[in-house]
Amino acid sequence: MTKSSWKSKLTSSLFVIPYLLLFIVFLLIPIGYGAWMSLHNWDLLNPVHEFVGLKNYQKIFDPNSYLNDLFFEGLKNTAQFVVYSVPVLVAVGLGLALLVNTLPGKIRGIFRTVYFIPYAVSVSVVAIIWLWLLDTNSGLINQYLQKLNVPIIPWLTDLPWAWISLVKATLWWTIGFNMVIFINALNDVSEELYEAGSLDGASRWQRFIHITLPSIKPTMLFVVITSTIASFNIYGQPYLMTRGGPGTETKVLLMNIVDEAFKQRQLGNAAAMSLLMALIMITISIVQFRISNRKE
Amino acid sequence: MEKKWLKMALTAALTLGSLAACSSGEETSKTVEGKGEKITYWAPFSGADGPRMKAIVEDYNTSQDKYEVDFQIVPQSDYYKTVDLAFSGQGNSPDVLVMHTDQLKNYADKNLLKDLNDTIENTGMKESDYSETAWSAGNIGDKQYSIPLDIHPLVMYYNKDLFTAAGLDPEQPPTNREEFLAAANKLTDSSKNQYGFVVPTLWPNQFIFPTILFQNGGELMKDGKPNYNSPEAVEALSFYSDLIHKEKVSPENVQQDGEVTLFLQGKNAMHLNGPWMMEQWDKAGINYGVAPVPQLGTKQQAVYANGHNFVIPASVTDSKKLDGITDFLKFAAENTMEWAKSGQAPASKAIYEQNEEFKAMKQQPIVASEFEYAKFAPVVANWGQLSEPLWAEVNLALLGKKDPKQALEDANKKAEQVLNK
Asked: Is the pLDDT of residue B14 over 70?
């Protein structure tokens, strides 16, 4: 073994260490601690935490327990959001990337920044902006609808509008991230392929389907998986915009878990619910990964 | 090479910065250092009321030098999480803290709060110095767990300009159901998008619905069980939802805070909310009046309220500390005029019955006039979770998606399930 390779190994390890430390402190240890909690009857105000084995998990699957409703109704609502939001997040992200990429150099930078800015804003600000825009009786959007003599829309208090509003706000907030990732992928597609395609008489659409899409496939997979995970973690938008309404129709799983942990003070139950949720997310990610790799 | 180092330093600085940001949640008031016995005091006053309380504490610290109160504000949204962690021994614990009335039972049940009966006697603080409603809320199972700071009941705000324009006397707001309906109808002009009383569909129904229910003579809990579907409750919710769907003095589909926005825009004539809204109306410069909540129910005058109370953790046993705490609480009882300035009415009689400056205020004496018939949340552990189904079903009824009776039946069923966990 030469000296330089030993050195380069050390350097690369050094680069990994900061991440590894943060990963252990902020992810691995909390996950382990959560798993430990989920096996106990862990009341936040009770100093004694009785070991109960898998009982907390059993309760989640017992139809007579309120935990059953809390978990599966929350999961149903979260799943709805994932199904509605992920296709839009991916398609619009790619669409914007294609549009921005056709712009001339200087303007391209401006638009890229403008679309990315909302991503830097916190969820409470996003919620307040959209609450004002979507207000049933005094919001900007309904004011315009009234001027056009279109009946006003109960954006946040009726279905399916509440979901549409939540997806819309999420789209506005996070689309910049997906767009930037797609722009980078598009720039990596070799110009020669397009040139060869044009010479062979491929139309714009054909070039997009047969050259662009296959070339950015790894990025596409990355965006689909990160968008799915991010959408699964939805919390702030419904918590602040619809408060879970109408009724509990948009009360997502994370809202229920937080309630169980800090309103009911049952950390054991909440930890069990979180771990189940994590398992579901991991399973879905693996399935997505498998499906897109099989097509190869 | 130089650039590389610069980049690394920047990265390190950013990382450290973001870590430091995580721990800056608590705000500490630094007063004169290093004198007297230190008393740590926690409160959730992260809004406009924070500086008021800070001023009281600073006054206390300069008024004597035996004790030094260290006042720490924990943001409202994280308050009970932080308190819970302190009580379970996983964090620093305060010596005295503010607790809402509807939370007392949760902590008293677990023996986490100090019975104040002995400490009170030593200092000459007594029940008769405080509003009876507020004092007795701290009495659970023959033990006195808290000293009240204030009661915040629901109050009615109304837009005086709209009253005048509709030919109503702006100094004579409605006091009962008939007057309320008559005024609301007169004040409604849907062609101008102007309404008599915009019915919220979410918060603050946690205050409004129990108020009408209590006024009907109903109870939220009976014999330790949820009692959401009583005839009184059905009448209350039917009346409330009729305001939207039959009387049409409110628009439909009001979203979170939609009624506040309309009140700020001068398109909502009457509005029920807590006394904490005062500063927001003042800032917006609305010509508003304050009145006790009209008797919208059919039986009696009543109003739902919550309150701020001082409690001492059971783990505080150092007698010197306890003396200091009670000394501070006594000072606070006599000096809460500052607290009143945020719109609240202190529960100490020295202020709300005797202080002339207080009596001359616009909103605060009206809040205090409701003390006598104010009622708190049922004394039951985990009222928060137990009441959750009720607010969701009230929401559905007010959105016109469910018949009030059916909604309350469903809420009751779900609450029973939570209770029988």
From this structure: no
